[in-house]
């Protein structure tokens, strides 16, 4: 190979730098601290930065000493990228440090070329594009390693948080202390203002609530999620002064399936109970279209959720005859009964609510009475009717199940 080959001449310059890599790395570390404010934040310590500089400078300069080399060893920038990602260093600042220090290497090569003189400065200038392509390759390797590490950390974080949500949902195994520890690891308060969201998963490739995390962050709501086959469950830690309807509206804006929301609760060790509310709320919605429903925390709601089958049998016993009627008759009688109960038994007031004559209300209530287990002047019968109507009003799926049974 001719000694006038530009790459050979540049290799001779690189060997000069290779002999003083440690001092050059020290200069670059000082330059980095001086030029880039982030590196003065103590996230990357002096020893860490100096060691990284030594590895990277030595890798670059050693490559330049081999004019015949065609393959880059990118392990140094990859290691730097991984480490800085683990330290949560901002990628733009890390890349800026790379640019600043590649500029420093170039300046050192140029200074040595001028000392040697002759054809060497021109040879270095001829190889400038090759050197800056090398800088691009190193920066790309660092960026790829940084992003891969960030992605891995996100997956690991999601898995840990998912497991912690599972602890809240399934209940602590060793008492309240476990929930306190879970709260600490999730960065949630143990006592606060919480909601559980249960979303039906339509497919394994599409989230049921896309974009919700961003909306929740904008509202100051922290969240942790557990994804399972067919569903996704979230625990939301809400600012106490944030109106609940704003949070529900954010969920509604993102819903692509049936979504249930629990009532607010104030202690994380009640998450399992809240989840049951959210699940039943989702199940009570019609299938096939996105919708959001939140159940109230009432004694009746809790009673029904405790045993849906028992409630179903009770509704059948109380309203079975009505539910076996054709849909139009059934809907009319149930609506009239609700209005009559809200009017405290006043046919005149119920008629105003239904926009019909009070005698029409009386006729319908007498007809309804034929299907009940006694007359409506019996407080027990009125109580049964009220309970059954509240149950099917809160849990429409009970009414749907009865319709199937009645229509058969």
Structural overview:
The longest helix is centred in the middle third of the chain and has 43 residues, at 128-170. Helix 1 packs antiparallel against helix 3 (46-64), helix 7 runs antiparallel to helix 8 and helix 15 (347-354) packs across helix 16. The protein has 18 helices and six strands. The chain is an alpha+beta fold. Strands 1, 2, 3, 4, 5 and 6 form a six-stranded mixed sheet that branches. Residues 401-408 have low confidence and may be disordered. The protein has three domains: 6-152, Globin-like; 176-295, 2-Layer Sandwich (Alpha-Beta Plaits), CATH 3.30.70; 305-407, PucR C-terminal helix-turn-helix domain (Arc Repressor Mutant, subunit A). 30% of the residues are buried.
Notable traits:
408 residues; alpha+beta; Globin-like; Alpha-Beta Plaits; Arc Repressor Mutant, subunit A; 3 domains; six-stranded mixed sheet; 65% helix
**Radius of gyration from CA coordinates:** 36 Å
Q: pLDDT below 50 for ≥5 consecutive residues: which ranges? A: 401-408
Structural class: alpha+beta
Q: Quote the beta fraction.
A: 5-15%
Helix content: 55-70%
Question: Major sheet, described briefly?
Answer: 6 strands, mixed
The number of helical segments is 18
| Number of discrete domains | 3
What is the third-level CATH name, the topology of the largest domain?
Globin-like
Question: What is the average per-residue confidence, as pLDDT, rounded to a whole number?
Answer: 86
Shape: rod-shaped
Order of helices and strands: HHHHHHHHEHEEHEEHEHHHHHHH
- Which CATH first-tier class of the largest domain would you pick? Mainly Alpha
Number of strands: 6
CATH architecture of the largest domain: Orthogonal Bundle
Oligomeric form: single chain
